[in-house]
Protein backbone atom coordinates (compact mmCIF):
# COMPACT_ATOMS: atom_id res chain seq x y z
CA UNK A 1 0.00 0.00 0.00
CA UNK A 2 1.16 3.51 -0.75
CA UNK A 3 1.54 5.91 2.16
CA UNK A 4 0.24 8.86 0.13
CA UNK A 5 -1.54 8.78 -3.18
CA UNK A 6 -2.83 11.92 -4.84
CA UNK A 7 -4.65 11.69 -8.16
CA UNK A 8 -5.29 14.63 -10.49
CA UNK A 9 -5.54 17.26 -7.76
CA UNK A 10 -6.78 20.60 -9.02
CA UNK A 11 -7.33 23.82 -7.07
CA UNK A 12 -8.11 27.33 -8.25
CA UNK A 13 -8.60 30.55 -6.35
CA UNK A 14 -10.79 32.72 -8.54
CA UNK A 15 -9.04 33.10 -11.89
CA UNK A 16 -5.73 31.77 -10.53
CA UNK A 17 -4.97 28.06 -10.92
CA UNK A 18 -2.76 27.13 -7.96
CA UNK A 19 -2.55 23.38 -8.61
CA UNK A 20 -3.23 21.85 -11.99
CA UNK A 21 -3.81 18.09 -12.28
CA UNK A 22 -1.11 17.04 -9.80
CA UNK A 23 -0.60 13.34 -9.08
CA UNK A 24 1.84 11.99 -6.47
CA UNK A 25 2.52 8.44 -5.34
CA UNK A 26 4.64 7.94 -2.23
CA UNK A 27 5.41 4.35 -1.18
CA UNK A 28 5.70 3.51 2.48
CA UNK A 29 9.06 3.92 4.19
CA UNK A 30 10.88 6.71 2.40
CA UNK A 31 11.46 10.45 2.78
CA UNK A 32 9.83 12.33 -0.09
CA UNK A 33 10.87 15.88 -0.91
CA UNK A 34 8.57 18.42 -2.54
CA UNK A 35 10.45 21.35 -4.03
CA UNK A 36 9.36 24.41 -5.94
CA UNK A 37 9.76 28.19 -6.15
CA UNK A 38 7.60 30.49 -4.03
CA UNK A 39 4.02 30.34 -5.27
CA UNK A 40 4.56 27.10 -7.17
CA UNK A 41 1.71 25.29 -5.39
CA UNK A 42 3.56 23.26 -2.73
CA UNK A 43 1.59 24.46 0.28
CA UNK A 44 -1.72 24.20 -1.57
CA UNK A 45 -0.98 20.54 -2.33
CA UNK A 46 -0.04 19.92 1.31
CA UNK A 47 -3.29 21.52 2.48
CA UNK A 48 -5.30 19.28 0.17
CA UNK A 49 -3.41 16.18 1.32
CA UNK A 50 -4.10 17.03 4.97
CA UNK A 51 -7.76 17.96 4.50
CA UNK A 52 -7.39 21.68 5.18
CA UNK A 53 -8.48 22.49 1.61
CA UNK A 54 -11.03 20.59 -0.47
CA UNK A 55 -9.77 20.11 -4.04
CA UNK A 56 -11.88 21.29 -6.96
CA UNK A 57 -11.13 17.94 -8.55
CA UNK A 58 -9.09 14.82 -7.79
CA UNK A 59 -8.55 12.77 -4.66
CA UNK A 60 -6.00 12.25 -1.89
CA UNK A 61 -5.48 8.99 0.01
CA UNK A 62 -3.49 8.48 3.21
CA UNK A 63 -2.68 4.78 3.61
CA UNK A 64 -5.75 3.99 1.53
CA UNK A 65 -8.14 6.35 3.34
CA UNK A 66 -9.73 9.14 1.31
CA UNK A 67 -8.99 12.44 3.08
CA UNK A 68 -12.24 14.08 1.98
CA UNK A 69 -14.60 11.12 2.46
CA UNK A 70 -13.20 9.98 5.82
CA UNK A 71 -11.14 12.89 7.17
CA UNK A 72 -11.02 11.76 10.81
CA UNK A 73 -9.57 8.33 10.01
CA UNK A 74 -7.11 9.85 7.53
CA UNK A 75 -5.93 12.49 10.01
CA UNK A 76 -5.37 9.90 12.73
CA UNK A 77 -2.85 8.28 10.39
CA UNK A 78 -0.72 11.39 9.98
CA UNK A 79 1.26 13.94 11.89
CA UNK A 80 1.28 17.39 10.32
CA UNK A 81 3.51 20.41 10.79
CA UNK A 82 2.02 23.29 8.78
CA UNK A 83 4.06 26.16 7.42
CA UNK A 84 3.48 28.41 10.45
CA UNK A 85 3.31 25.73 13.16
CA UNK A 86 0.44 25.16 15.59
CA UNK A 87 1.13 25.48 19.30
CA UNK A 88 -0.76 27.05 22.20
CA UNK A 89 1.30 29.99 23.41
CA UNK A 90 -0.31 30.15 26.85
CA UNK A 91 0.43 26.51 27.64
CA UNK A 92 3.80 25.11 28.68
CA UNK A 93 5.87 22.95 26.36
CA UNK A 94 4.84 19.81 28.22
CA UNK A 95 1.17 20.80 28.36
CA UNK A 96 1.08 21.26 24.58
CA UNK A 97 2.38 17.75 24.03
CA UNK A 98 0.13 16.16 26.68
CA UNK A 99 -2.96 17.90 25.31
CA UNK A 100 -2.21 16.75 21.77
CA UNK A 101 -1.61 13.19 22.98
CA UNK A 102 -4.98 13.30 24.76
CA UNK A 103 -6.68 14.38 21.52
CA UNK A 104 -5.28 11.20 19.92
CA UNK A 105 -6.75 9.04 22.69
CA UNK A 106 -3.46 8.07 24.35
CA UNK A 107 -3.87 7.09 27.99
CA UNK A 108 -2.34 9.19 30.78
CA UNK A 109 0.61 6.94 31.62
CA UNK A 110 1.63 6.54 27.98
CA UNK A 111 1.28 10.21 27.13
CA UNK A 112 3.44 11.22 30.11
CA UNK A 113 6.07 8.73 28.96
CA UNK A 114 6.00 9.93 25.35
CA UNK A 115 6.10 13.59 26.36
CA UNK A 116 9.23 13.00 28.43
CA UNK A 117 10.94 11.08 25.63
CA UNK A 118 10.12 13.66 22.96
CA UNK A 119 11.11 16.64 25.13
CA UNK A 120 14.48 14.95 25.69
CA UNK A 121 14.98 14.20 22.01
CA UNK A 122 14.23 17.79 21.06
CA UNK A 123 16.40 19.32 23.78
CA UNK A 124 13.52 20.88 25.70
CA UNK A 125 13.48 19.00 28.99
CA UNK A 126 14.79 21.98 30.96
CA UNK A 127 12.12 24.25 29.44
CA UNK A 128 9.20 21.84 29.73
CA UNK A 129 7.41 23.97 32.36
CA UNK A 130 7.90 27.29 30.57
CA UNK A 131 5.11 28.94 28.60
CA UNK A 132 5.56 28.57 24.86
CA UNK A 133 5.05 32.32 24.34
CA UNK A 134 8.48 32.81 25.92
CA UNK A 135 10.13 30.54 23.31
CA UNK A 136 12.15 31.49 20.25
CA UNK A 137 10.92 30.55 16.77
CA UNK A 138 13.19 27.52 16.71
CA UNK A 139 11.91 26.26 20.05
CA UNK A 140 8.29 26.80 18.98
CA UNK A 141 8.97 24.75 15.86
CA UNK A 142 10.39 21.96 17.98
CA UNK A 143 7.19 21.95 20.05
CA UNK A 144 5.15 21.77 16.82
CA UNK A 145 7.15 18.73 15.79
CA UNK A 146 6.75 17.18 19.24
CA UNK A 147 2.96 17.49 18.97
CA UNK A 148 2.99 16.08 15.43
CA UNK A 149 4.91 12.93 16.38
CA UNK A 150 3.48 12.21 19.84
CA UNK A 151 1.15 9.51 18.44
CA UNK A 152 3.94 7.91 16.33
CA UNK A 153 2.13 8.60 13.04
CA UNK A 154 2.78 6.28 10.08
CA UNK A 155 2.76 9.35 7.81
CA UNK A 156 4.54 12.60 8.75
CA UNK A 157 3.92 15.72 6.64
CA UNK A 158 6.11 18.77 7.17
CA UNK A 159 5.74 22.08 5.34
CA UNK A 160 9.13 23.85 5.37
CA UNK A 161 10.02 22.61 8.87
CA UNK A 162 13.47 24.23 9.07
CA UNK A 163 12.84 27.65 7.51
CA UNK A 164 14.31 30.42 9.63
CA UNK A 165 15.75 28.11 12.28
CA UNK A 166 19.16 28.44 13.89
CA UNK A 167 21.73 25.72 13.25
CA UNK A 168 21.06 23.90 16.54
CA UNK A 169 17.27 23.77 16.06
CA UNK A 170 17.66 22.78 12.41
CA UNK A 171 19.88 19.84 13.33
CA UNK A 172 17.44 18.66 15.99
CA UNK A 173 14.57 18.82 13.52
CA UNK A 174 16.50 16.90 10.86
CA UNK A 175 17.63 14.28 13.38
CA UNK A 176 14.03 13.86 14.53
CA UNK A 177 12.81 13.42 10.94
CA UNK A 178 15.44 10.74 10.38
CA UNK A 179 14.55 9.07 13.68
CA UNK A 180 10.85 8.94 12.81
CA UNK A 181 11.61 7.56 9.36
CA UNK A 182 13.90 4.86 10.79
CA UNK A 183 11.03 3.85 13.12
CA UNK A 184 8.54 3.41 10.30
CA UNK A 185 7.11 6.83 9.44
CA UNK A 186 6.88 7.79 5.80
CA UNK A 187 7.89 11.47 5.52
CA UNK A 188 6.74 14.13 3.07
CA UNK A 189 8.45 17.49 3.42
CA UNK A 190 8.57 20.70 1.49
CA UNK A 191 11.69 22.80 1.73
CA UNK A 192 13.57 25.65 0.07
CA UNK A 193 16.86 24.22 1.28
CA UNK A 194 18.16 22.27 -1.73
CA UNK A 195 21.07 20.67 0.12
CA UNK A 196 18.74 19.61 2.92
CA UNK A 197 16.53 17.84 0.37
CA UNK A 198 19.58 16.28 -1.24
CA UNK A 199 20.79 14.89 2.10
CA UNK A 200 17.41 13.73 3.44
CA UNK A 201 15.22 12.60 0.58
CA UNK A 202 15.05 9.32 -1.29
CA UNK A 203 12.71 10.78 -3.92
CA UNK A 204 11.98 14.36 -4.95
CA UNK A 205 9.24 15.97 -7.02
CA UNK A 206 9.67 19.47 -8.38
CA UNK A 207 6.54 21.58 -8.87
CA UNK A 208 6.37 24.80 -10.86
CA UNK A 209 3.32 26.91 -11.70
CA UNK A 210 1.02 24.25 -10.29
CA UNK A 211 2.45 21.36 -12.31
CA UNK A 212 4.85 18.53 -11.45
CA UNK A 213 7.75 18.96 -13.86
CA UNK A 214 10.17 16.27 -12.63
CA UNK A 215 10.28 13.35 -10.21
CA UNK A 216 13.18 11.09 -9.28
CA UNK A 217 15.98 10.42 -6.84
CA UNK A 218 18.35 13.31 -6.14
CA UNK A 219 21.04 11.56 -8.19
CA UNK A 220 18.71 11.06 -11.14
CA UNK A 221 17.66 14.72 -11.10
CA UNK A 222 21.29 15.86 -10.91
CA UNK A 223 22.21 13.80 -13.94
CA UNK A 224 19.40 15.44 -15.91
CA UNK A 225 21.73 18.38 -16.46
CA UNK A 226 25.10 16.73 -16.06
CA UNK A 227 26.53 18.71 -18.95
CA UNK A 228 28.59 21.51 -17.43
CA UNK A 229 31.40 19.68 -15.63
CA UNK A 230 34.75 21.21 -14.85
CA UNK A 231 38.11 20.46 -13.28
CA UNK A 232 39.49 23.12 -10.95
CA UNK A 233 43.26 23.21 -10.63
CA UNK A 234 46.01 25.44 -9.26
CA UNK A 235 49.78 25.21 -9.69
CA UNK A 236 52.78 26.40 -7.71
CA UNK A 237 53.56 28.98 -10.39
CA UNK A 238 51.71 31.07 -12.92
CA UNK A 239 50.68 29.45 -16.20
CA UNK A 240 49.02 30.80 -19.30
CA UNK A 241 45.61 29.70 -20.53
CA UNK A 242 46.99 28.22 -23.74
CA UNK A 243 48.60 25.33 -21.85
CA UNK A 244 45.10 23.84 -21.55
CA UNK A 245 44.60 22.72 -25.13
CA UNK A 246 42.86 19.46 -25.99
CA UNK A 247 39.82 18.46 -28.07
CA UNK A 248 37.82 17.42 -25.00
CA UNK A 249 38.31 20.76 -23.25
CA UNK A 250 35.38 23.05 -24.03
CA UNK A 251 36.63 26.27 -22.41
CA UNK A 252 38.95 27.53 -19.68
CA UNK A 253 38.31 30.27 -17.11
CA UNK A 254 40.64 31.96 -14.63
CA UNK A 255 39.37 32.08 -11.03
CA UNK A 256 42.01 34.00 -9.12
CA UNK A 257 44.94 31.64 -8.67
CA UNK A 258 42.88 28.69 -9.94
CA UNK A 259 41.82 27.56 -13.38
CA UNK A 260 38.49 25.99 -14.27
CA UNK A 261 38.70 23.63 -17.20
CA UNK A 262 35.22 22.83 -18.54
CA UNK A 263 34.86 19.46 -20.21
CA UNK A 264 32.42 16.62 -20.86
CA UNK A 265 35.14 14.11 -19.89
CA UNK A 266 36.54 15.08 -16.44
CA UNK A 267 38.58 11.89 -16.09
CA UNK A 268 40.43 12.51 -19.33
CA UNK A 269 40.92 16.19 -18.44
CA UNK A 270 42.50 15.30 -15.07
CA UNK A 271 44.92 12.91 -16.76
CA UNK A 272 45.77 15.53 -19.39
CA UNK A 273 46.43 18.19 -16.71
CA UNK A 274 48.65 15.77 -14.78
CA UNK A 275 50.64 15.09 -17.95
CA UNK A 276 51.15 18.77 -18.75
CA UNK A 277 52.24 19.42 -15.14
CA UNK A 278 54.86 16.72 -15.44
CA UNK A 279 55.95 17.95 -18.86
CA UNK A 280 56.37 21.57 -17.73
CA UNK A 281 57.72 20.65 -14.27
CA UNK A 282 54.74 22.18 -12.47
CA UNK A 283 53.54 21.18 -9.02
CA UNK A 284 49.79 20.76 -8.66
CA UNK A 285 48.75 22.56 -5.46
CA UNK A 286 45.10 21.50 -5.68
CA UNK A 287 42.83 19.74 -8.14
CA UNK A 288 39.16 18.78 -7.92
CA UNK A 289 36.33 17.83 -10.23
CA UNK A 290 32.88 19.37 -9.95
CA UNK A 291 29.82 17.22 -9.45
CA UNK A 292 26.37 18.00 -10.81
CA UNK A 293 24.26 19.60 -8.07
CA UNK A 294 20.59 19.32 -7.21
CA UNK A 295 20.46 23.12 -7.06
CA UNK A 296 21.58 23.36 -10.69
CA UNK A 297 18.97 20.81 -11.76
CA UNK A 298 16.28 22.66 -9.78
CA UNK A 299 17.14 26.06 -11.24
CA UNK A 300 17.30 24.79 -14.81
CA UNK A 301 14.10 22.74 -14.51
CA UNK A 302 12.06 25.56 -13.00
CA UNK A 303 13.52 28.16 -15.37
CA UNK A 304 12.74 26.00 -18.38
CA UNK A 305 9.21 25.05 -17.37
Which outline best applies? elongated
CATH superfamily of the largest domain: P-loop containing nucleotide triphosphate hydrolases
CATH class of the largest domain: Alpha Beta
Structure class = alpha/beta
Which runs of at least 5 residues are low in confidence (pLDDT < 50)? none
Could you give a short account of the major beta sheet?
6 strands, mixed
Number of helical segments?
Answer: 10
Describe the structure.
- The protein folds into two domains: 2-223, P-loop containing nucleotide triphosphate hydrolases (Rossmann fold, 3-Layer(aba) Sandwich); 224-292, Alpha-Beta Plaits (2-Layer Sandwich).
- The protein is 35% helix and 29% strand.
- The protein has ten helices and 14 strands.
- Strand 7, helix 6 (167-182) and strand 8 (186-190) form a beta-alpha-beta unit.
- The longest helix is centred in the middle third of the chain and has 16 residues, at 167-182.
Describe the structure concisely.
With 305 residues, the chain is an alpha/beta fold. It has helices at residues 42-49, 71-76, 93-103, 108-121, 137-149, 167-182, 194-200, 218-224, 266-279, 294-304, and strands spanning 2-13, 16-27, 31-35, 57-62, 65-66, 78-81, 155-159, 186-190, 203-208, 211-216, 229-235, 249-255, 258-263, 284-289. The protein has 2 domains: 2-223, P-loop containing nucleotide triphosphate hydrolases (Rossmann fold); 224-292, Alpha-Beta Plaits.
Amino acid sequence: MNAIEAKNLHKSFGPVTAVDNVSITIPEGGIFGFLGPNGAGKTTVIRMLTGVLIPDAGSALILGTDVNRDPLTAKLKMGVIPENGTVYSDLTAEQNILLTAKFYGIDRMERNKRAGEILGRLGLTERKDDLVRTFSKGMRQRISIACAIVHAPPVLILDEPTTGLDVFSRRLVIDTVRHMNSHGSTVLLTTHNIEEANALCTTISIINKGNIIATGSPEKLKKTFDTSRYVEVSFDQRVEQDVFSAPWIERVESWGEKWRVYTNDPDRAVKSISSLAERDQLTIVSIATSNPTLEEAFVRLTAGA
